[in-house]
Amino acid sequence: MKKNLLLSVSLIGTLLVSSAFIIRYSTGIAGRTGSPGESNCTACHNTGTAVGTTSISSTPSFSANQYVPGQTYTVSITCTHATLSHFGFGCEILDGTTSAATNAGVMTGISGSSKLLTSGTRKNATHISTATGTGSPFSKTFNFQWVAPASGTAAIYVAGLAVNNNGNDGSGDAMKTASLVLTAASTGTTSTGVQAIDAISGSLNVFPNPSSNELNVQYSLLNESVVSASLYDLQGKEIATLFKSKEGFGVHTEQVAYPANIAPGVYMLKLSINGALTGQKMLIKN
């Protein structure tokens, strides 16, 4: 009887540990961004040989690796992988590049996309739960808001994780870190990145998305304007100008083709209207 009781207690304990384990690793964990003085996702996940990608972008965009003091940014973390379709991430934005660094600016989670956790004194934006990607390769973008500090360095550290979603830490997962070090723009500088579309036009619609060969860029103008659209990679490099024209008031739709031999992946389409910019992420597939 005593032996059976001990066995029952042992089994219950195992189930509780297993349940906690699954919950733990399906939600974000703080302190796993690969920032100075911290580990990354491999502390919990035995990664396989396949390597995914992790990229950092923002709206408005970070121009010349600078931020505008006090500006509110929507920071986007995009994870991709050829075969793994479930993703997570962890991100810190610090006031330096050493283990003594602490928070730079103020991070806020976005409902349905991210939440905030704490590692010591450092704030972390993480996934809420393991998220399913789409496209080919599979891709998932997580977003959170960040209010830039008044001055100083802002070093973004992120670890992106692609997993097989089998509920344990066995081999077969993939992890990729990324970082971006920003400095404050000079006093009086305004954002040269993506603006709110409402300030310059009535709407922006890009479809289909994902797409493979061509897409439609639909926008409306409040006044006669010079309009152009360009394609950028997530490192901010211009890939191609898709069109440029002068249009009048009203709704316009431009059908454009992608450049020949463009690689599948996530890109940013930026629409310029009289020099003011807005943009939308695009997933280009085979």
So what's the CATH class of the largest domain?
Mainly Beta
The first-to-last residue Cα distance is 64 Å
Helix content: under 10%
List the uncertain runs. 5-24, 187-202
CATH architecture name of the largest domain = Sandwich
The CATH topology annotation of the largest domain reads as Immunoglobulin-like
By helix and strand content, what is the structural category? mainly beta
Main sheet makeup = 7 strands, mixed
The shape is globular
Beta-strand fraction estimate: over 45%
Order of helices and strands: HEEEEEEEEEEEEEEEEEE
Q: What is the number of helical segments per DSSP (H or I, 4+ residues)?
A: 1
Number of strands: 18
CATH homologous superfamily grouping of the largest domain:
Immunoglobulins
Question: How would you summarize the topology of this molecule?
Answer:
Elements lengths: L1 H25 L26 E7 L6 E2 L4 E10 L4 E9 L11 E4 L5 E5 L2 E5 L4 E2 L5 E10 L6 E10 L10 E11 L16 E7 L6 E8 L3 E8 L5 E10 L2 E8 L7 E9 L2 E9 L2
Parallel strand pairs: 2-11
Antiparallel strand pairs: 1-3, 3-9, 4-7, 4-8, 4-10, 5-9, 6-7, 10-11, 12-13, 13-16, 14-15, 14-17, 17-18
